[in-house]
Each structure stands twice: as structure tokens, then as C-alpha cells.
Amino acid sequence: MTEVPPGYFLALAGLLFTVGVVGVLVRRNAIVIFMFIELMLNAVNLFFVTFARMQGNLEGQVLVFFVLVVAAAEVVVGLALILLIARRRASLDVDNVRLLKW
Amino acid sequence: MSLDIVVFGAMFVVTLGAALAMLFAHNAVHVALLLVLSQVGLAVAFLLQGAFFVAAVQIIIYAGAIMVLFLFVIMLLGVDRREALDEPLRGQRPLALGLGALLTAQVLYVAWQGVDLAFADGGETAIQEINSDPGNVLGLARVLFGRYVLPFEITSVLLIVAVVGVMVLARRIYSVAPAGDAEAERSEVEEVAV
Description:
By secondary structure, chain A is mainly alpha-helical. Chain A has helices at residues 6-26, 30-55, 59-89.
């Protein structure tokens, strides 16, 4: 196993999460925003694996699977919603979707 | 081990570089491909830390299945669409970048303190021992189907709910066309109100 200190992995995970947050704030295409959310989930997975290594047990790695299941369910429902919105508005720009009812 | 540092450095540059490039890519397909690159880099990070099965799952499910779903939807909606990168909200972008920089500073500060964070008792080699004695997959299975068996069963409910939800969202109502109508062959397709 690696001798790279866990702090370096934590730094990478934190930076990836930050990039994901900035991407969600800055981009306007709904699908692209969704991909940045995936990036954030991936960063959290790296946190879990690093903490598992620090604690010396596998529970952190098991938690990754739960994150994965939630991510899969979220992607499926979210992409269906995006498809419906795109079919209706002919646009993927999230700034156009500002009414609760139309 | 100097080789570990080299692998880690290359993984760090590829993963973070791909993630940063996602911010500036105009085309949604490019964003998706860069995300795949970033996820493969993360799989290397999992391998480095002895999480072999998680690394395999990362590539098969994330970089494989989920990203294919994304690309499928991108293709379905039209790949030629270029996203306008300008921002209509005044001051939103500098504010986002400023808050992002603040978050980066916090993360780096916390990680800097974590560099010489103590491992738990025997934590340095514990994963290695687990990986060599019962094996990574067997060890994971014992935890998942032992202590976490109830959450594991509950995830099946989540998946069922997601499947049913998507079926309701994607449903179309086929209304019966009046008999003798010229259009009767093609039944009218009516979209469910969103």
C-alpha cells in the first residue's frame, strides 16, 4: 500500500469537491450542472476511502456503495426530469426555468 | 517509496486537471469525456489506498454505465447545442469564484493539518492485512452483509422508487382516435403535463 500521507488524498478530494461546487454555481446547462454534482459525489467517495484507510477498517469502503446507489437513482430520475423540461422548453438553460407553473 | 509519490502526482494532475477543464469546456460531450477521465484518475487513487473492489466498481459503474447514460441524453437532445458561457446575473460569477477560492483555502488548510494526522491503532497496515487475509472482496462482503445488511436492503426500496418514478415521468398517454378518422392509424400522442 502507498506511503503517500492521507492528507494529500484529502486535499485532492476537497479540491475536486470545490471544483464541483464552483461548476454548479457557474455553468447554466442543466446536464453539465448534473455532471458537476457527480464530480462532488466522486470526491466524497475519495474521502470515504481515505478515511477507511486511516481507520484501518472497510466500513468507509462499504459506504461508497451506498453513495453509488444513491448516485445511480439520482442520475436516472434527474435525467428524466431534464429530458421532460428540454422537450417542453426547447432549452437546457436552467435560467429559463424560473416559474413553478406555466 | 518514491514510485508511489510519482503515481500519486500523475493521478493528482490528471484528475484535478480534467475537473478544472470541465469548467471551461463549451461542449457538453467534452465535459462528459473530461469527467470520465477524472473518474478513472479517482479509480487510481482508490487502488493506491488498497480499495481494489471499489476501484473496479468506480470504472464499471461510474465511468461506464452512468456516463453512458449522460452521453445518451446529450445525444438525444442534440450535440450541436453550444452553451453560452456568459452570465446574465450581475456579479454572480465573481461571487461564485470568490466563494470557491474561500472554500479551496479552507479545504487546503484542513488537509494540511491532516497530512500528519494520526492513523487509528494499527491503521497504517490494517487495510493491507485485510486485503491479504480474507481478501478485499470477502472483507467487504462480510461488512456489507453483516453489520450493514439493513441499509443494504433499504437501498433496494430506493432503487424501486427510482424506477417507478422514472416510468411515471416518461409515461405518455395514448388517446383512442375516433373510428373512421383518417388519422386513426396513428393514435394521437399526448404528453403528460410536467
